[in-house]
UniProtKB/TrEMBL annotation:
Transport found in the keyword field: no
One Gene Ontology cellular component annotation held by this UniProt entry: mitochondrion
Domain of life of the source: Eukaryota
Phylogenetic placement of the source organism: Eukaryota, Fungi, Dikarya, Ascomycota, Saccharomycotina
UniProt protein name: 2-methylcitrate dehydratase
Source organism of this protein record: Saccharomyces paradoxus (Yeast)
């Protein structure tokens, strides 16, 4: 190799002998032609903009889901940490025509309002659930839906129809059905937890889709919003699993819906741009970077409708991670059986928990439990408490209750085994069971009959039994929050059960839930 200097132009040229040319490669030139948006994005946007909701079952179920979710949000306000997390960043801030946060006097912009409402409704892990290859809580999307609907309705009234839009309760329920469907259908066959991602990625995607239409965006702009939601940073599941389980799992959904609403407003206000192959781009796309190169699959159900809302699971009896709902119900039955035999938890030698693979992966936990979030994701803890007291409430995850050494002593006597049939039935689209069975051996060698509960009371197969209990749960949460205001509770219940409830302006309804 030698250098040749051109003094006139002050350039240096590198000259290589011919024998060295063989070691050089010609760089491949990448084309910069924009592809058509990924099919997943187009399918979701088409569903949101073009598919009407015609299922009366879905609408009736959405109404129950809406009430239950609001009740859970009120119940979360009992807890200081939840109250502190949702506070305005600048104390005393009141946004003109802003979103009213249920159970408080806060009036926020719709992004911060989404975080506050989304955090409250998820805090206790007590609202509805969807179990498939990926699990999650589709009602989390209500945080974004309600915040936007409430703000736009107030803006509409303040400007006498020149800005915003008047949303009715039915509009909110329709949006809930579609958000449930998007999150739930993607979750059927696609496990984000197996690649270490948290299910709130689907909350962000579903909320982004439905909120974009609520804001008046076009179908093409919804694709734009969706592409931004998928390219956005996705949460790791670290905070849901030992040894790092913590309270972030209680506000992760609030974070997801607030991000979704923020992205929708960015598209509305600034046209931030579509990333058409956000999923499929080689090297840089979601599939290659975060999903081990595998595309999302939709073999069970290739079209979006209202299937998820029609089959949603309600948490009615216990504020417990859903894979343990039937285990807790079995534990309450065992408590009664022991009592009938003049026995108690102190007479127990061992407990075999026959369960599904998902439960073993998520909530089978030994060793110390450090906080509320640790305890409500430990199947042994959720069984031990009702075996001791006969029930399980949100307060039972507190440090005060957990200090009872009898709980950990009883936990140490339990062990989980997977029943492959239960795992199969868990994924069966015609069953979607969440079975658990307890086999208890006593210190004297007596073995009680195994107590098996296949479907929780909130399951579709037990819907007739569950609806009155769900409404009782809603009323209980109202009474516990609006203490000393029985008239207010009566007004909310009466309005919620009226035949024309669906035609009520959503901001007028939410005014009933706010503190002066």
């Amino acid at each position: 190799m030698f250098l040749v200097k051109n003094l006139k132009y002050n350039r240096i040229k590198v000259c290589l002998p011919k024998k060295e040319f063989s070691s050089l490669r010609t760089a491949s030139v990448q084309t910069n032609e924009r592809p058509s948006p990924d099919k997943v994005l187009k399918d979701i946007a088409k569903y949101v903009h073009e598919t009407p909701i015609t299922s009366s079952l879905a609408l009736d179920t959405a109404r129950l889901c809406f009430l239950d979710t609001l009740g859970c949000g009120l119940a979360a306000l009992k807890f200081k940490q939840a109250r502190n997390i949702i506070k305005p960043i600048v104390p005393g801030t009141i946004v003109p025509n802003g979103t009213k946060v249920l159970g408080t006097s806060y009036v926020m912009d719709p992004v911060k309002g989404s975080f506050a409402i989304g955090t409250l409704i998820r805090w206790l892990d007590y609202n509805d659930c969807w179990l498939a290859a990926e699990w999650g809580h589709p009602s989390d999307n209500l945080g974004g839906i309600l915040a936007v609907a409430d703000h736009l309705s107030r803006l509409n009234k303040a400007t006498r129809g020149k800005s915003g839009k008047q949303f009715l309760v039915k509009d909110v329920l329709d949006a809930m059905i579609k958000a449930h469907e998007i999150q739930g259908i993607i979750a059927l066959e696609n496990s984000f937890n197996k690649v270490g991602l948290d299910h709130v990625v689907l909350v962000k995607v579903a909320t982004a889709a439905v909120v974009s239409k609520m804001l008046g965006l076009s179908q093409e702009q919804t694709i734009e919003v969706l592409s931004q939601a998928f390219v956005d940073g996705q949460s790791l599941r670290t905070y849901r699993h030992a040894p790092n389980t913590g309270s972030r799992k209680s506000w992760a959904a609030g974070d997801a819906v607030s991000r979704a609403v923020n992205l929708a407003y960015l598209v509305k206000n600034a046209n931030v741009g579509t990333i058409p192959s956000v999923l499929t781009a080689k090297t840089w796309g979601f599939y290659d970077v975060l999903f081990k190169g595998k595309p999302l699959t939709f073999q069970q159900r290739s079209e979006y409708g209202s299937y998820v809302m029609e089959n949603i699971l309600f948490k009615i009896s216990f504020p417990a991670e859903f894979h343990a709902q039937t285990a807790v119900e079995a534990a309450v039955k065992a408590y009664n059986v022991l009592g009938e035999q003049a026995k108690s938890f102190k007479d127990i030698k061992s407990i075999r928990i026959r369960t599904q693979e998902a439960a073993m992966r998520i909530i089978d936990k030994s060793g110390p439990l450090y906080n509320y979030a640790d305890r409500d994701h430990c199947i042994q803890y959720m069984i031990a408490v009702p075996l001791i007291t006969g029930n399980l409430t949100a307060a039972d995850y507190s440090d005060e209750v957990a200090s009872n050494h009898e709980i950990d002593n009883l936990r140490s006597k339990m062990y989980c085994i997977e029943d492959t049939q239960l795992s199969q039935d868990y994924h069966d689209p015609d069953k979607r069971s969440i079975g658990n069975a307890l086999l208890i051996e006593l210190n004297d060698g007596t073995q009680l009959d195994e107590i098996f509960v296949e479907y929780p009371v909130g399951h579709k197969f037990r819907r007739e039994e569950g609806i009155p209990l769900l409404l009782d749960k809603f009323q209980r949460h109202l009474r516990e929050h609006f203490v000393g205001s029985p008239d207010k509770v009566d007004v909310i219940m009466n309005e919620s059960l009226k035949t024309n409830f669906l035609n009520m302006p959503i901001d007028s309804y939410m005014d009933l839930f706010t503190e002066e």
